[in-house]
UniProtKB/TrEMBL annotation:
GO terms for biological process: lipid metabolic process. It comes from Cladophialophora chaetospira. This is GP-PDE domain-containing protein. InterPro entries: GP_PDE_dom, PLC-like_Pdiesterase_TIM-brl. The chain crosses the membrane at residues 315-332. Residues 60-300 form the GP-PDE domain. PROSITE patterns: GP_PDE. SUPFAM superfamilies: PLC-like phosphodiesterases (SSF51695). Keywords: Membrane, Transmembrane, Transmembrane helix. Coiled coil: none annotated. It comes from the Eukaryota. The lineage of its organism: Eukaryota, Fungi, Dikarya, Ascomycota, Pezizomycotina.
Length: 363
C-alpha cells in the first residue's frame, strides 16, 4: 500500500486569513480567531434538531447517508444533488485518498462493489479513478471532496452542511493534512467551511490531528460501541454519531441519557425502516443519517406527538439487533488493540501544552 511519510506542520493549514495567496494559489482559511491556546472544539449549533415547515417542535435533521443512496449510486454527485433536491439538511460522505494524494469520496477502500474493479483506491491515481463509472445506473464517476465542496459553495446551497466520515484505512496524518489542503483550495462563499463541515472520526488518535490541521472545526465521534464512545464525553463539545442498533436496550438508553446531560448532539446511522425513524424522533436525536432522506423528511413534516404511538421494533429487527450486539462484543477488543490511543491521553497532552504556554507568557 502506498503511503507518504508523515509531514509535520508548523502551523495548522486553515488558520490563515481568508483569500491568502501562497505560492501563487489562493487558500481560504477558516475565518476564525487563532485558537492556538485552546484545544477545545466548537459546538455545531447548525447541526442540532430543527423545525419542519410551520411546526414548532424540534425534530432530528435529515442527513443523507452517502447522498440519496436509496435512489442514486452512493457517494456520487448524482446522489448528493438528489439529496439536496428532496430537502436533506446535510450530506454524509466518506473520505479516502488516492495514490497521488487526491481526496475522493467512497465508502469502500476498493472499487469492487461500486465500480466492478479489483483495485484499491490508495493504489490508483486520480486520472484512472476518474475514468471509472458506477455499476449502478446512471453509471456516474467517483467525485472528489473538491467537487462536493464546489457544489455546496453555490449561493443557493449555503444552508447545506457536510458530515465527513474519515475512514481509518488511510494514513491518519496524511488524510487530515490533505482534507485541510482541499478545504483551503475551495472558496466557501459567505459561510466558512468550519461553519458547515463536521469532522467525523472513529478513533481518539484523530483528535490531535483535527487540532493540528483543522482547528476551529466541530468534531463528532463515529462509532458502534457505546463503551468506547463514552470516553469522548471528556473531550470538549465532541458530538456523537452512533450505530442505531447500539442505542437500543438498557446500555443504549444510559448512553443517550449521559450524552443529553452533557448537552452533546447525538446522530444515529443508518436508519432506513419507518418505525426506527420514528424511534429516533421520539428519542429526540439531533439528526438521522439515512439512505432515504425523502421518507424521513416526510415523517417529520407530518409528525404529531399526540397521535403517534410509541415506536417499537419488530421481532425480526430485535433478532438482528442482538446479532449486531454479538458482533460489536467480539469486534470491540481488536478495535481497541489496533487503536490504543485514548481521549485521556489527548487531554493530558492538551493540559501540558496549556501549562507550557502559560509559562512562556510569564517569562
Amino acid at each position: 500500500m502506498h503511503h507518504r511519510a508523515d509531514i509535520e506542520a508548523t502551523e495548522p493549514l486553515l488558520r490563515e486569513e481568508a483569500n491568502t495567496v501562497v505560492n501563487g494559489h489562493t487558500k481560504y482559511g477558516s475565518q476564525i480567531p487563532d485558537r492556538s491556546a485552546s484545544w477545545d472544539f466548537p459546538i455545531a449549533s447548525w447541526a442540532q434538531a430543527t423545525t419542519y415547515g410551520e411546526g414548532k417542535q424540534l425534530l432530528p435533521q435529515a442527513i443523507a447517508h452517502r447522498g440519496f443512496k436509496a435512489e442514486h449510486p452512493e457517494n456520487t454527485m448524482s446522489s448528493f444533488i438528489g439529496a439536496v433536491e428532496v430537502g436533506a439538511h446535510a450530506i454524509e460522505t466518506d473520505i479516502h485518498l488516492t495514490k497521488d494524494d487526491v481526496v475522493v469520496l467512497s465508502h469502500d477502500p476498493d472499487l469492487k462493489r461500486c465500480f466492478g474493479a479489483k483495485e484499491k483506491i490508495i493504489d490508483c491515481d486520480w486520472e484512472y479513478l476518474s475514468s471509472k463509472r458506477t455499476l449502478r445506473e446512471p453509471h456516474v464517476p467517483m467525485p472528489r471532496l473538491q467537487d462536493l465542496l464546489e457544489y455546496v459553495a453555490q449561493p443557493s446551497l449555503e444552508h447545506i452542511w457536510i458530515f465527513l466520515d474519515i475512514k481509518l484505512d488511510n494514513n491518519s496524518d496524511n488524510v487530515m493534512r490533505l482534507i485541510a489542503n482541499t478545504m483551503a483550495s475551495v472558496h466557501p462563499g459567505d459561510r466558512p467551511w468550519n461553519d458547515r463541515v463536521i469532522l467525523g472520526i472513529w478513533a481518539a488518535k484523530y483528535l490531535p490531528l483535527c487540532t493540528k490541521y483543522l482547528p476551529g472545526y466541530p468534531v463528532s465521534h463515529i462509532g458502534f460501541s457505546t463503551v468506547y464512545a463514552r470516553q469522548f464525553l471528556k473531550a470538549p463539545n465532541v458530538s456523537f454519531s452512533i450505530l442505531q442498533k447500539s442505542l437500543l436496550g438498557f446500555s443504549g438508553a444510559r448512553f443517550m441519557r449521559d450524552v443529553r446531560r452533557a448537552n452533546r448532539p447525538l446522530y444515529s446511522w443508518t436508519v432506513n425502516d419507518t418505525n426506527l425513524m420514528k424511534w429516533c424522533v421520539q428519542h429526540q436525536l439531533a439528526g438521522v443519517i439515512t439512505d432515504d432522506p425523502k421518507r424521513f423528511r416526510k415523517i417529520c413534516e407530518e409528525w404529531d406527538d399526540e397521535k403517534e404511538p410509541k415506536a417499537r421494533q419488530t421481532i425480526a429487527q430485535w433478532l438482528y439487533t442482538m446479532y449486531v450486539w454479538v458482533l460489536i462484543f467480539f469486534f470491540s477488543r481488536p478495535f481497541r488493540r489496533k487503536f490504543p490511543e485514548t481521549v485521556e491521553q489527548y487531554i493530558q497532552k492538551k493540559n501540558i501544552r496549556a501549562k507550557a504556554a502559560e509559562t512562556v507568557e510569564e517569562l
